[in-house]
Amino acid sequence: MIALRKLGSLSPGHRRRKAATTLEALERELRAGRPIDAHYAAALLELLAADEGLSPGLRAELERDRAVLDSPPEGPGAAGPAGAAPAIAALNRARRDLGAELDLPCADWDLMPPPGASARPGPESDGRRSPGGMRAYLEDLRSPFNVGAAFRSADAFAVEELLLSPFCADPLHPRALRSAMGATELVPWRRGSLEDLDGLGSVFVLELGGTDLDEFEFPERGVVILGSEELGASPEALSRAEARVSIPMHGSKGSLNAGVAFGILLHAWRRSLARAQARDRA
Questions:
Q1: Are 38 and 103 in contact (CB under 8 A)?
Q2: Closest by alpha carbon to 138, among 209, 218, 234?
Q3: Do strands 161-164 and 189-191 pair parallel, antiparallel, or not at all (unpaired)?
Q4: Which CATH number describes the domain made up of 134-281?
Q5: Is the separation of the CB atoms in 50 and 12 below 8 Å?
Q6: Which pTM does this prediction carry?
Q7: Rounded CA gap, 241 and 154, in Å?
Q8: How many Cβ atoms sit within 10 Å of the Cβ of residue 125?
């Protein structure tokens, strides 16, 4: 890693770009299960947070991420994957936020909603939705294409509402609008936190290691949490969820694209509700 003294001597633009590359390298090491110098990582974020050429909002976020890295978990298992999760999330967030402000080239899943993006609810009713029932929380999806695909699937299966986390890609991004095919105008949505799921019914998460999709008992009224492409559902989301459901994999790959997985789950949920309604009528 580049020495912080050397980094501080670079020109502002060169220093920021080099810092973004260094954050990516640190995150990659942690993801691979290799230890990093947490104090170096925290000092790097402290250096960036003191950069008056960056926006006040970004500097505040970097300072919060620095605090995470400066307080590593202690006790049994602290060095394992679960113990590294907060540091990985902090580095991931810092790298994305810095890259977004510097307008660095990034993959679709790294794109951030523009500052001040606000909720734009859909129509009260489009004539095809059923009251109550199915809702979903998109937690930190980075790809606008995946967000747009989620809206299109939500419309197809009559989801009542989509809730988007603060860091979820913007549904009004051109790439999201392209894959949504107009569904952003049909599906009601708003931004919110996990706390906003209270009172919306049973909360469950689509994640690996859960109950097989074909055996899962879907609620008549509830919210499914769909985690990010890179990190999956957050520890906070997993702790809030009452259950975990998984799509069985029969090929060589162990997972599916987030947008594809979401569509499969909604189909199974809608089919489960239809069967329950048929039993009630019998």
A1: no
A2: 234
A3: parallel
A4: 3.40.1280.10
A5: no
A6: 0.59
A7: 20
A8: 9
- pLDDT tens string 121-142: 444 444 445 545 899 999 999 9
Chain segment 80-111, per-residue pLDDT in tens: 444 688 889 899 899 988 888 887 755 444 43
DSSP for 52-91, written as a single string: TTS-HHHHHHHHHHHHHHTS---STTTTSHHHHHHHHHHH
> Which residue carries 């394992």 as its tokens?
80
Question: Helix 12-31 vs helix 38-49: angle between axes, to the nearest 10 degrees?
Answer: 150
Domain boundaries, the chain: 4-106, 134-281
The SS3 call for residue 112 is coil
Distance of CA 51 to the CA centre of its chain: 27
Task: Tell me the residue type at 248.
Answer: P
Identity at 225, one-letter amino acid code: I
Tokens (6 digits) for 162:
């989509």
Nearest 5°: phi and psi at 219?
-75, 155
